[in-house]
Amino acid sequence: MLPRTHLIRIQRSMYDKLKEHASSMFGGLSPELKHYFKDYQRDFQRFTELSTKRQLLLEVLKAQIVFCGDYHTLSQAQRTVIRIIRDSVRVLKRKKRKIILALEMLTPEHNALAQRFLVGKLTEKEFLNRIGFQKNWGFAWENYRELFKFAKEYRIEIIGINHPQSSKKPSLKMRDQFASKIISEISLLDPTAIIFVLIGDLHLAENHLPEQFRQVLKLKKAKRQTLVIHQNSEKLYWQLVDKGIEPFVDVVKIKKDIFCVMNTPPWVKLKSHLNWTELIAETGSMPPLETAAQAFHEMDYSHEVQDLTAVIGKFLKMTLPKLENFQIYGPLDLELLKIKDKGDDARRASINSLNSKYAQVFKSYFIPDRNIIFLNSLSLNHVAVQSSLYLFSTLSGFKDVFENPRRDFYRFIWVEALGFLGAKVINPKRKCNGYLDLKKALSQMKLNKGDENTESARLALSHLDWEKRGGNNQSNTALIFPSSAHKNVLYYKTAKILGHLLGNSLYQSIVDMRISCEEIRPLFYHEFRTSDDALKLYQDWTRRLDVFNYRESVKWGTL
Questions:
Q1: 362 alpha-carbon distance from chain centroid
Q2: Which of 36, 217, 261, 481 has its CA 20 to 30 A from that of 71?
Q3: Which domain holds residue 484?
């Protein structure tokens, strides 16, 4: 069986199981939701043509109103809107067009509070309390925080468009009518402005919010150029799979002025909803920020790690031992990582300290000598990486912590490569920065010597430049490793960047049938005992794979 065929069968199976689980969990939809869902699905019978990020951005620049579909539990949905605006902002500012971000999570009554929060006159906690975030919205604030950080950085106005809460819950149609009224009023005040509307995807069926907006404008004898951007239609994704082109397509055009961004597989999208629903069920209501962490702490997600390791093993055609000797720690367990066992010596204390530091810096982290998987969120990407690292540690016996950059840098490139390889099996749309992506990112970053993200990107780029120049021995490396561990986080972040690039290349080479699973499997059993061993293996593999340019660019031109 071809690797791609094998992978698609595994992924379809994952999706079918999640759909079955979702059906049993959610039960039937209300009549109103059924109606909206049916209309929404009707809009996705097929796409008319393949498109690109560039073509979509050109349409954005011509529009006055950009309706963006939001899948509230999926952080990628909110990040996509940020990317679209970020890539348009320079041209819009040059044309002196005001940018407004209209959010469903706020009502117009919250506009003044949002403005005070953006200028620093309200703390985050005060803002969330004042708008009744958990009561009135209830989805993960972490996902929406990034929108406000972005708006603050680029001085973008934020307004609310949701219907104010009352004793009687407003219907979906009433909410569409209300949002249309607010958007039209704002647009009529400044016809040159561009309004990005982020609202639940079901509202964007053609005969709902877009039609309501047209009717409102018609009454006011006005017209506006609108653009609708849906996100990640399951039906369209499987159509792309059937054509064998889903890895290469990030945007499709449904019809004139209607596009769909395709950057997340259906099972990843659905899993985000299931995870959030389970958190709500655990607390009995929409969880406040504090109890979300508590619910995470109390729930058992060990089955998820077991399921993901099984999927990764199945893809690589491994016969796996029973994998259940691990613990999952969440945000409330952070202090436990600092606890020392009786009789701990100075080195053990140092390792405990490093583990605690890495758990705080990274959103997820695996502690191999204690088989602890630390997760700060239930993002499937992060769970998949740590599941793959647990699998590697179990099979190889690798139990080390990144303690000394000189000794550990190349060893942990491999650790991170195998983690990312496993994550790509679970989410083939996951991306990392390639050589050209790093160059572009660094050119846009503000110079900040103390910023480890900027510094790690710069070090990774220096290393890739050194490789391009034919660097072939450790003493001549582009990086000067410190003799002490005071820059552990910086060099670990750099190893992650290079490791993710290597892991992405390994995955792509399997799917493209450049190499076989049989050649990859031994890497999961390799202990990477020394830096020299890890460096030589790294050079052997990168030279072999670089003829296919897998590391040149991964994100360029994609959403």
A1: 14
A2: 217
A3: 300-548
**What are residue 367's DSSP bridge partners?**
372
**Given pLDDT bands bounded at 50, 70 and 90, which one contains residue 295?**
low
Shared-domain flag, residues 310 and 258? no
DSSP 94-105: HTT--EEEEETT
Classify residue 282: in a domain, yes or no: no
Task: Residue 102: name the closest of 185, 169, 42 by CA.
Answer: 185
Question: Would you give the distance in Å from CA 189 to the centre of its chain?
Answer: 36
pLDDT band at 334 (very low <50, low <70, confident <90, very high): confident
Do residues 89 and 168 share a domain?
yes
Number of Cβ within 10 Å of residue 551's Cβ equals: 22
- The region of weakest confidence among 33-42, 212-221, 225-234 is 33-42
- Look up the CATH number of the domain holding residue 81: 3.40.50.11550
pLDDT digits (tens, 9 = 90+) for 173-217: 999 999 999 999 999 999 999 999 999 999 999 999 999 999 999
Burial class (CB in 10 A: 0-12, 13-18, 19+), 309: buried
Q: Across-strand partners of 50?
A: 252
Say what the pLDDT of residue 441 is. 87
Q: Is residue 362 in a domain? A: yes
Shared domain for 151 and 242, answered yes or no, is yes
- Please tell me the total count of domains within the chain: 2
Residues 374-396 as b/e (b if ≥16 CB within 10 A, e otherwise) read bbbbbbbbbbbbbbbbbbbbbbb
Tell me phi and psi for residue 227, to 5 degrees.
-140, 135
Looking at residue 337, the DSSP 8-state letter turns out to be G
Cβ proximity of 364 and 328 under 8 Å = no
Q: Are 535 and 433 contained in the same domain?
A: yes
Q: What angle do CA 540, 544, 545 make, to 5 degrees?
A: 120
Phi-psi region of 228 (alpha: psi -120 to 50; beta: other; left: phi over 0): beta
Same domain, 254 and 308: no
Same domain, 202 and 121: yes
Token couple for 338 = 């600092």
Alpha-carbon distance values, 339 to 360, 372, 390, 423 (Å): 15, 14, 22, 30
How far is it, in rounded angstroms, from Cα 51 to Cα 30?
A: 35
Q: What is the pLDDT of residue 448?
A: 59
387: pLDDT strictly greater than 70: yes
Q: Is the pLDDT of residue 282 over 70?
A: no
What's this model's pTM, rounded to 2 decimal places?
0.93
Half-sphere exposure of 518 (CA within 13 A, CB side): 0
| 66 closest CA partner among 212, 177, 182, 224 | 224
Do residue 363 and residue 306 come from a single domain?
yes
In the chain, the largest separation of any two C-alpha atoms, in whole Å, equals 80
Residues 243 and 333 in one domain: no
143 in a structural domain:
yes
Residue 556 lies inside a defined structural domain of this protein: no
Dihedral of alpha carbons 419, 422, 427, 433, sign:
positive
- Residue 335 has a pLDDT of 78
What residues contact 209, with CB distance under 8 A and at least 6 apart?
Answer: 67, 176, 179, 180, 199, 203
Length of the chain: 559
Is 552's pLDDT higher than 60? yes
Listed residues 218, 243, 264: the one ending a domain? 264
